[in-house]
Amino acid sequence: MPHDRILIKGAYLMTQDERLGDLAGDVLIADGTIQEIGPDLQDGQARVIDGSGTVVLPGFIDTHRHNWQGALRGLGPAWTYEEYRSRVQIGLGQYFEPRDVHIGNLAADLLSIDAGVTTVRDESHISNSPEHTDAAIAAHWESGIRAVFDHGWPSTEAEAWQFGSDRTHPDDIRRVRRDVLTDDTARVTLNAMLRGPELSTPEVAEHDIRLARELGLRISMHVGLGEWGAKQQAIGRLAGSGLLGSDMTFIHCCTSTDEELRMIAAHGATASVASALEVFMPGLGQPATNRLLAAGVRPSLSVDTETIVSGDMFGVMRAALAYQQLVVAGAAGPMDRAPGLPTFDAADLLSFATIEGARACGIDDRTGSLTPGKEADLIMIRIDHANLLPATDPAAAIVANGHAGNVDTVVVAGRALKEGGVLKGGETVFEQAAASRDRLFRAAGLSRSGAAG
């Protein structure tokens, strides 16, 4: 797809680049990259976008979303973790056809773009067949988003693949690495979503980790899942067996011990906090954001599943902040009552949602900040909208009051995917998503239970 040549003039830039900081100025985009940042830039060939009344940020980076569930949006905001697993992963996952994966991923991508997410790490545990996997990847290419595709396990016989499973990771990941996602600098790249010692046996965990490293892939792993996670202490097991490394991102960590969180920091690994999901869904535990900071880990942020929570990062940031206030008030969960836990503010949350997300995905060399030479993944938020005025502190205004409707422009790899508040393309996607949902419900023998058409 052709790149745009764009000059954004007169915006407030929150670069997330420590050398540049925040400044009023311009951004020149050409050949898919950020060419220049500074005051009074001129370019006679570029299309000019008026940045007055806006903040320009690097795009939000969602480091953990199960995109295949995009057509099941909003099914169970009051579900527990066990209800979600039973009804979605186990109950519906087995009935997904490749076309359902494609439209679910595409719907999730388009909503993400609309809300200012320019990169998604797609935790794809719907690898029911090679065709399912290829359909998921194709949707990422089609949508225009930057995607880190995390190849996972099937949702057929879902129970046999989790919580003590003795099945090794699907070998089709070798084909994907060899034939499909071979270029680690492309807009869509490959990672490995592994179960680790919390969801599989220690022997399987070691086999899968060595497989991912043989293929040169970064690794994501769900850990600290409720009482089971507290009992298993997966991070500690990995450290004890010499398998813990800087190529790993640990998702949730809700019931991982403080010692385990310090192990993450000591080994240069990263973490993803799905704060909105964790406060909505009983059974996982509470967001570990403050404990991670105490351990020396600056976390990234993620949505997780749109069946439970909204698919935008504004809600994720607010949920993290709301839970922190319970920590400060001494009303948080038992793991968050240690005195003197460090706190974070709105500026930190924007950092978690951008540059820290890029670091967790291993792509901070090319995105996550407004830095000349990096790929042009950025968003423009209108802070002259009524819900954000008077925007005395732009970061606080965005975190406290922002929503997808404030996102005026979204650029990924130099292409404008949303402009003037209007998402480009995808006019029929949500009709197709509704049809996919209905097909899945019929296959599973379920009623729509009042779901909107």
Automatic annotation (TrEMBL):
Transmembrane segments: none annotated. Residues 55-416 form the Amidohydrolase-related domain. Coiled coil: none annotated. This is Amidohydrolase family protein.
